[in-house]
Structures are given as C-alpha cells and as structure tokens.
Amino acid sequence: MASAIQNAFVLGAGLGTRLRGLTARRPKPLIPVCNKPLITFAFDHLLGAGVKKFVVNSHHCAESYAEIFPDRAYRGATIHFEHEEILLETGGGIKNVESVLRDEPFIVYNGDILTDLPLAPALAHHAERGNEVTLVLRSDGGPLHIALDETGRVTDIRRKLNTTPTQEFLFTGIYIVEPEFFARIPAETKISVVPIFLEMIQQGAKLGGIVIDDGNWWDLGTREQYLDVHRFFETGKFSESAGLLWTHPTAQVSPTAQLRGATAIGASAKVGDGAVLDDCIVWENAEIGIGTCLKNCIVTAGQRVSGTHRNADF
Questions:
Q1: For 246-310, which CATH superfamily applies?
Q2: From CA 253, how far away is CA 152, in angstroms rounded?
Q3: pTM, rounded to two decimals
Q4: Which of its termini does the chain have fewer beta carbons within 10 Å around, N or C?
Q5: DSSP string computed for 147-175
C-alpha cells in the first residue's frame, strides 16, 4: 500500500487572464463557487487523500488570501503562503517553495481546477512505479497534449519532441512529485515545468502518467465553464453536492423574487422585489434592483445591477 503524502503545493499565483473582469480584484482560486472559494474544493479533495499541510503561492491580489484564511488554516490543516513578487510560473513556483517541501514527496495541484477524481489510484501508481513525477491524466475534456506509452511513461508534451504518439491525453493540473525534482529547476528563475519535463523525457528519467477518467473535472478558464459548473452542481451529481450553499444565510432575498436554475447568492447580497434571476452567480455585497431580470449573468462583489440583461458580467 502506498504511503500517504501529507503535503500539497496548490498553485494560487496565476493572473486569471481568461476570466479577466471577474479576477480584477481577487485571484481566480478565490472566486466563489456556490459560496465557497474555488481553492477550498482543492483543499477538500486533498484532505480526503490524506494531505495535512498546504503550501499556496500568491501574486495577484495576494492580500485576499489573508482575508479568506486569517488563521492560515483550513479544516485543521495548516496553510503556508509563499508570495511571489515576480510571477515565477509553475517550475519557478515549485523551486520557490523548496525550503518548505524539500524533504518529502508532495502533490502539485492547480488552484483553478475543480475535480473529484479519485486520487488514491494515482498515489498508488506513483509509489509502485518509483516515479520521480507522475502526471494525472484524462482521456478527454480539454486539449490532449500528453503522450503516454503502453508502460505508463510520458514520451512527449505538445509534440515538442517531434514524436508520433499513438495516443495523447489531457493533463489535469495534478501531479505527484518526489523531492529530488527540485534539483532540476534553476533557482530564482521564471520557468514552466514543461521544458523541465521534456528534458526528463530526453534523459530517460522516471516521468510517468496515469489516466483516471472516473469522477468529474473542470478547468474554470471561461465564464461559461464557471456557469456550467454551477449548472452541473444543481443536478446534484457532484460528490459533495449536499454541502453546497446556494443562498448565503446573510443574503436578503425578497419573497417576491424568483431564483431559477443554478443561481447562487452571496453573503450580504440583496435581491429586490420582483427580481428574476435565472442561472446567475451573485457575489457578496452585490445588490439586484427591484424588477431586475438577469439570465446567465455574473454580478461581482459590491456591484449594483438593475434592468434586463442576458449573458453579461458586472
């Protein structure tokens, strides 16, 4: 049986450029999903796999993390925040936390994905194969960039090595890393993990992958994907649907307002008389005016909206 990995590095420093507008005043991992910060879904997932300590890098609107996690803890697990004055990308970000994680294997987890895929098979596969790095993959659901051979060894990424792969897979943004990987990353350098992985392939290092198609996986890169996650949750098919909060208890929703479909209302938000909201996400402290009609709209924190709108962000 694979030994438990107790540390995870959750990538929280991205700029959220694909959701620009929604992420102007907060990092993408902190956007609310059914009134939970997105990153807490990653934390919950990792806690279920045995993780006890989180390391999170920050850059854009870094102070938001301190506001959400003032005790630097979540459900009994400690959170260590490592700020990047200059954005270091994935490889540089990992190197930057070497002093915190260098002694034990750890899980790297992109802070802008949402998934409930089972992690136990990946942890067992990583230990059994003796890999230095194991990428968690899926057969579909996005761009297929990772080539994997029949032995489970990664042979190319984005066809950078000019191979002719028999099959390519989606990279989920989750990977398991042994501490010796730190030595491959140049210090104080802005660098992605991709060129480092490609060098590992060329050297014959143990860069492996496992395909896990069970469970659900989303990359919340666009407003439609953000709305679609809420629509899926509304069906009750997500593994933790029972714990989701659609209307925050501090929200003030008029008894004559109608909340239809996958509509979430944030803390201290106000929804006026006769308002109709259909598949909308309303963040904290927002105000929806009397008689307002919204369809597929996102209202960010503190915004006031009135009138009739469709497919709009405020």
A1: Hexapeptide repeat proteins (2.160.10.10)
A2: 53
A3: 0.95
A4: N
A5: EE-TTSBEEEETTTT----S-EEEEEEEE
